[in-house]
Amino acid sequence: MIVAALTIGGWACAADTWGYSYKDFEIMAEGSANDALTVGRQLGAMDESMRALLHLSSVASEPPTRVYVLPQAQLAMLDAVWSSEGGGFFRTGPFDDYVVLPNGPLSANAEVYEQRARALLASWGLGRLPEWYRQGIALLMADARVEHDQLIVGQDLRERSERIAHNWIPMAQFLQLAANDPTLHRSPDTEATYEAQCWWLAHLTLLDTVLDKVMPQYLQRLLMGESQQQAYAATFGIPYEQLDQYFRKLRGKIVLKRYTAALPDPVVLTNPPLTTVQVQSRLAELLLAHEPQAAGATQMAKDVLSQEPKNERALLTLAGQDFAARRYGAVQERLAELGTSEELSAASHRALGTLQAGLAKARDENMPGSSGVDARGMRAAARTHLKRAMDLDPNDPRAPFQLGWMLSTAGDVVGVRELLPKVEAAFYRRPESADLAELLVRMHTLAGNTADVFKYAVAEQRLAATDADRARATARVERLRTQLKAPQ
């Protein structure tokens, strides 16, 4: 068995570190093989449970997500915030999520799972759900726990139950509160009451079937663009004060239910633990994604290249840093080292193509330092690498998404028409993606397919995450509707 001995600037560990893929997760975890596999099973069970509770189709998949599970001491060397807050979650694009966790029980990372739950709602086209409901769902998932290979969602948390038994924000005010409303932040007590009320109402809605006759209709009307007052009047049909009275009586007698789901069956890791170089290169990737100018990423990548001069991940890490610093000449040099390799992974082809597309855009925009960039050559190379990434991993949405925007921005009608089936296939696998809907509107516009532009504009309108996005999409839909009705 290979034992990784990692030493970089005071960093040291001597334990097995495993890397594997599970569903849409790419996981790196230190510990035993069984512990490493458990991480994927738990995350997969949480996502499946959340979809089930929301009654979403099984096609509502999570974005590709990189997961890093490391000892607390190592987290402290990577990032002080991750160490103090028990991990972290961040998103670098519509299809790039990162989860950082310390070794330990699922319940130790509540803040991380709360952030991921909110991000998943946005990924599933539910970003326009009311703030209180999204917050309540996130708190429910953050409180989930694993017992005897079962994931348990929902429980009667005494502190929150007692708080809403003695404190209550009137529903007329509560249902309209926004996340940045100063009312919520005037005192810690008010914030705690708001969170407890969000959690309790989401619990009733998702697990206890108390509001199953009115709440789905109310939420659907909000998603369709109705105001809170209109949606409430059309579904609840009673004064807010009467709803407060109903909940006051209910708080004293309801016994909250639990949702239980078995963890997926374990699999067997057949690959050996990661080598020191593999661990370093993956951590350098993580640091670069989190902070493009991270000094730790530079040092790790250079240490890797001193041992493996052609290491894909390390070369791409340094190229990404050079690009962020607008050192375009250095980016071209590093990419040239990679471009001749015939054994690049799908991820490396995608990253290489994305950087090449970025170089072409920098030259088109006449960015300082880009005079030596061959924009046409970079776009041609990017197209080759992104197509290769799609061939190697046809279910990953990132390469067709990147290529679609590059071709659309360049006005390449022939290229857009050729790529359209791949981007549409990505959307059919992720029909909840507003980003793919927006791209398809752009591509079909260039291709001259008015009926298809209208179809995806309607999808973009339905999935819009903000009022401003919805207003823009609605205006486009109305213009297209007029065009389609006009005599030909």
Strand content: 5-15%
| Number of distinct beta strands | 10
> Distance between termini?
72 Å
Helix content: 55-70%
* Helix and strand composition category: alpha+beta
Radius of gyration: 25 Å
Mean pLDDT: 89
Poorly predicted parts: 1-14
Q: Report on the biggest sheet.
A: 5 strands, mixed
Count up the helices. 22
- In the sheet with the most strands, the strands line up as 3-4-5-7-6
Shape call: globular
Which helices and strands occur, and which strands form pairs?
Blueprint (H helix, E strand, L loop, with lengths): L3 E5 L2 E5 L1 E6 L2 E6 L2 H21 L11 E6 L1 H7 L1 H6 L2 E6 L2 E7 L7 H14 L7 H12 L2 E3 L2 E4 L4 H9 L4 H4 L13 H19 L8 H9 L4 H8 L4 H12 L7 E4 L13 H15 L4 H13 L4 H13 L3 H12 L6 H19 L10 H18 L5 H13 L2 H17 L4 H14 L2 H14 L3 H19 L3
Helix pairs in contact: 4-5, 5-8, 6-8, 9-10, 12-13, 12-14, 13-14, 14-15, 14-16, 15-16, 16-17, 16-18, 17-18, 18-19, 18-20, 19-20, 20-21, 21-22
Could you explain the architecture of this structure?
The chain has helices spanning 33-53, 72-78, 80-85, 110-123, 131-142, 158-166, 171-174, 188-206, 215-223, 228-235, 240-251, 276-290, 295-307, 312-324, 328-339, 346-364, 375-392, 398-410, 413-429, 434-447, 450-463, 467-485; strands at 4-8, 11-15, 17-22, 25-30, 65-70, 88-93, 96-102, 145-147, 150-153, 259-262. The strands form 3 sheets. It has a 5-stranded mixed beta sheet with strand order 3-4-5-7-6, sandwiched between helices. A 3-stranded antiparallel beta sheet has the order 8-9-10, covered by helices on one side. The N and C termini lie far apart (72 Å). It is 59% helix and 11% strand. By secondary structure, the protein is of the alpha+beta class. The longest helix has 21 residues, at 33-53. Among the domains are: 156-257, no CATH class; 419-488, Serine Threonine Protein Phosphatase 5, Tetratricopeptide repeat. Mean pLDDT is 89; it is low at 1-14. A hairpin with a 2-residue loop joins strand 8 (145-147) and strand 9 (150-153). The protein is globular. Helix 4 (110-123) crosses helix 5.
